[in-house]
Structure formats: structure tokens, C-alpha cells
Design brief:
Shape: globular
CATH topology of the largest domain: Amino acid/polyamine transporter I
Structural class: mainly alpha
Radius of gyration: 22 Å
Largest sheet: none
Oligomer: single chain
Distance between the termini: 45 Å
Order of helices and strands: HHHHHHHHHHHHHHHHHHH
């Protein structure tokens, strides 16, 4: 017989596990840098971060619940070809080409810091990477209990680390807040920095893990969407608090660590707050954060490939292949891969945001063809703008002269901040809603 209610003691650990997967290595180390660079402008900067790195990712879970589908299923309603382009680019960036290998590289760096070991060959790295991905596979081998494993093993360690750093940093600030260190408005800075966390695409993928975990707890099908939203709210609320307090600590480092950013800044601040033992604690936390993020994304991408292949690629086989590819990338050329894939973030985020906002905020959208037509145009326009921004990024990366095109493009509203897609996507929505009435007419890709 199906149960219809879950207790708070069941939902809170799931929310904690979700926070752990979002927190990862990057969301652990970036907020302190955001705070340092924002100084006295921390509040508007945090609000920008909150929108793209917390609130919209939460709406991602809301969209999955309202859209009654997975990341792939929601994307296919735009068009099958759009889903193939958008979802596969997203999965490759989140999976073996960027985020997963970045996690194992971060874990290796943390391991070296903890042990003080200085390898003289590639063999120790090969051994560490093999053990690391074997651990990842153990966590995800049973997809129904991945969330439970994270909540019981990895989340407590992260919680203790984060609580220790935040408590000490708030009660004994290192310095005062200085002026912001960038030229753009603080809110825009935070908004764009939130892109790089990749929290929204992660949310659209992590939703499948939560759903599998909820199904394993014998609740009714009609309750899964409601509990998905609750777990998403718990996880993103903890994430928001963590981001804010880490930014506060970073903002009070004025005059300290002038040339340090990201993990180096975090480690230096923790050592200053807690002494040498703090450095060890930080690296243990980073090791676990990286492992947690890699577990969540590997499991999610494995589920994606099982779904997109109609189960011709089995979940466990996909997990093994993704782990092997991620390990190879992390060993052979992660730094170059990170640089080469960075412009893809500007391709992914605009359509991900539009897809999420439409599903989450427009009532009964999946049952109204005019509303669906509006969403299809809006999401398609945002993808076009994302591709243009991404291509400009690649052209500039390879020093190709596109100054004339870029100069004209930057005349569009907000395009200087890579936000030109916002206005035109909204206009596209109304074009689709009022002027395109048949689904077949809007299959733009």
C-alpha cells in the first residue's frame, strides 16, 4: 500500500543531500571571492547571485514538478531537435568535459594539501583517480538510494566544515569591507557570477535523483511533485544561507590576500581564522564537496543517457563510461578543457532560464497550446542569443577579428552584459502567443 506522507525527518536529510550536491567544490570556494570583490556592495551582489544561483535553480525543481517531466522531457516539448542540441551540450559540459573532471582535480589538489605529498610521477594521480571514480560509482550504483547515501555519509562532513568556517568568520572578522573591485553594477556582477555555478542545469538534472529517491519510499505518484518542491526548497535555502555568509566573510578581508581568489582565498582565510588545523579541515571539506558534486552529476547524466537512448544504454553502463571519460579528461588536460568549455555556459544558461521560468511561473502551460507556442519562441530566441554570445567568446579566445560584428551586436539592450536575450525572449514569447497558433509552425529547430 502506498504511503501518502513523509515526515520532516525524512525530508530534511534529502534536502541536505541536495544542498551537498549543489554545494560541490565550486559553490564552496566561489562565494568568498564574490564577497571579497564586492566589499561594501555585498547586498546587491548577493541578490544577483541569489537570482541565478539559488532562486532560479529552485524554480527548476518547481518547473519539473509542474511540467510533469524530466529535463529531457521538458526540453522535447520545445522540439525534438532543440532537445538534442540543448540537452547534449548541457550534459557534456556538466558531465565528462567540465564539471565532473573539475571535481576530481579539485579533490586531488585537496588530497595533496592534506597529506603534504609531492608526487614525482603520474602514477599516484592515476591511482587516486581510479579510487576516486570507484567511490563515485559505489555511491551511484543503486540509483534509488544515491540520495540516502549522500545524506548519511557526505552531508554531515560538509555541514560541520561549513558551520565551523561561518561561525568563526562572522564572530571574528579578519578586517573591514572595502570598495567593490569591478566596474559593472553589483547586481549584474552577482547575476553573471551565478551563471558559472551551473546550479540551474544541475537542478534540472538532480530532479531525477530526487524523484527516484521519493519513489523508493513508497509514496503515491500524486505526492511526488509536492515532495520534489519541498526537498528543492530545503536544499536551495541552505545553499542561499551558505552563499550569503561566505560572501560576508569574504567581504571583510579588505587588505588581506590581495592576489588570492577561489580555493586559495578560502584556504588562506580558514588558516587565518583557525590556524594550521583550519587548512586541513578546509581541504577535507573540499575533498568531500568535490566527491558529492561528482556523485550527483554522474548519477544524473547516467539517468539522462538511459532515458535519451530508451534504455538501450543502461544506467550502470553509462555511469562506468562517464566515470572513465571524466577520469581521462581530469588527468590529460583539464585546464585546457575548462578554458575551451567556458563560453558554452553562455549558450546553456539563457534557454535554461527561459525554460524554467515558463514552466514554473505560467499556470497550466502544458495544457494550453498558445502558452506553449509563446514558450517555444522565447526559449528558441534565448538559445540563439546564447549561441551568439558563446561564438563571440570563442572568437575572442582565438583572437579572431570580429570587432565590427561585435560592435553592432553590443548596441542591443543589455548585450554588453551578455543579457541581450532577456528583452528579445520576452518579445518572442508574445509573438509566439499572439501570432503562432499551431504547434507545427513553431518547430524552429
Amino acid at each position: 500500500m502506498k504511503k501518502h506522507t513523509l515526515s520532516a525527518m525524512t525530508l530534511l536529510p534529502l534536502g541536505g543531500a541536495l544542498f551537498s550536491m549543489h554545494f560541490g567544490a565550486s559553490s564552496m570556494i566561489w562565494p568568498m571571492t564574490w564577497g571579497k570583490e564586492s566589499g561594501t556592495s555585498i547586498i546587491p551582489a548577493f541578490l544577483g547571485v541569489y537570482v541565478t544561483a539559488v532562486f532560479i535553480p529552485f524554480l527548476g525543481y518547481f518547473a519539473l514538478a509542474k511540467g510533469e517531466g524530466t529535463f529531457l522531457g521538458l526540453s522535447r516539448r520545445i522540439s525534438p531537435i532543440f532537445a538534442k542540441i540543448f540537452c547534449n551540450i548541457t550534459i557534456l559540459v556538466l558531465g565528462p568535459l567540465f564539471v565532473i573532471p573539475r571535481m576530481s582535480a579539485a579533490a586531488w589538489g585537496a588530497f595533496l594539501q592534506i597529506t603534504g605529498y609531492e608526487p614525482f610521477s603520474m602514477i599516484p594521480l592515476l591511482i587516486f583517480t581510479s579510487i576516486y571514480y570507484a567511490l563515485v560509482y559505489w555511491f551511484i550504483s543503486g540509483k534509488d538510494n544515491t540520495m540516502d547515501k549522500i545524506s548519511k555519509i557526505l552531508f554531515p562532513t560538509l555541514l560541520i566544515t561549513v558551520a565551523g568556517v561561518i561561525t568563526k568568520g562572522l564572530f571574528t572578522p579578519l578586517s573591514i569591507q572595502g570598495p567593490k573591485m569591478y566596474s559593472e553594477p553589483a547586481f549584474v556582477y552577482g547575476f553573471l557570477q551565478g551563471y558559472a555555478t551551473m546550479e540551474l542545469p544541475c537542478a534540472l538534472l538532480f530532479g531525477g535523483l530526487i524523484i527516484n529517491s521519493l519513489k523508493s519510499k513508497n509514496i503515491g505518484k500524486d505526492s511526488i511533485s509536492r515532495y520534489l518542491i519541498i526537498v528543492g526548497l530545503i536544499g536551495t535555502s541552505i545553499l542561499a544561507l551558505s552563499h550569503f555568509f561566505h560572501m560576508v566573510i569574504g567581504s571583510t578581508t579588505y587588505g588581506f590576500f590581495d592576489d588570492l581568489k577561489f580555493s586559495a582565498l578560502y584556504a588562506a582565510a580558514v588558516v587565518q581564522l583557525w590556524g594550521t588545523a583550519g587548512g586541513i579541515v578546509f581541504n577535507i571539506g573540499l575533498l568531500f564537496a568535490a566527491l558529492t558534486c561528482a556523485v550527483g552529476i554522474t548519477a544524473s547524466t547516467s539517468e539522462f543517457y538511459e532515458e535519451v537512448s530508451d534504455k538501450q544504454i543502461k544506467y550502470k553502463n553509462a555511469a562506468i563510461i562517464i566515470s572513465i571519460l571524466s577520469g581521462i579528461v581530469s588527468i590529460l588536460g583539464l585546464e585546457n578543457i575548462v578554458i575551451l568549455t567556458e563560453p558554452m555556459l553562455t549558450v546553456i544558461y539563457p534557454p535554461a532560464i527561459m525554460l524554467t521560468l515558463c514552466y514554473a511561473l505560467i499556470p497550466n502551460i502544458i495544457y494550453n497550446e498558445r502558452l506553449m507556442s509563446g514558450m517555444r519562441v522565447a526559449v528558441s530566441v534565448s538559445l540563439v542569443f546564447g549561441i551568439i554570445d558563446g561564438l563571440i567568446g570563442y572568437m575572442n579566445m582565438f583572437n579572431l577579428n570580429i570587432s565590427a560584428f561585435e560592435k553592432v551586436y553590443r548596441l542591443l539592450p543589455l548585450s554588453n552584459y551578455e543579457l541581450g536575450w532577456i528583452l528579445f525572449s520576452i518579445l518572442g514569447y508574445f509573438v509566439g502567443y499572439f501570432f503562432i497558433k499551431k504547434t507545427s509552425a513553431i518547430k524552429m529547430f
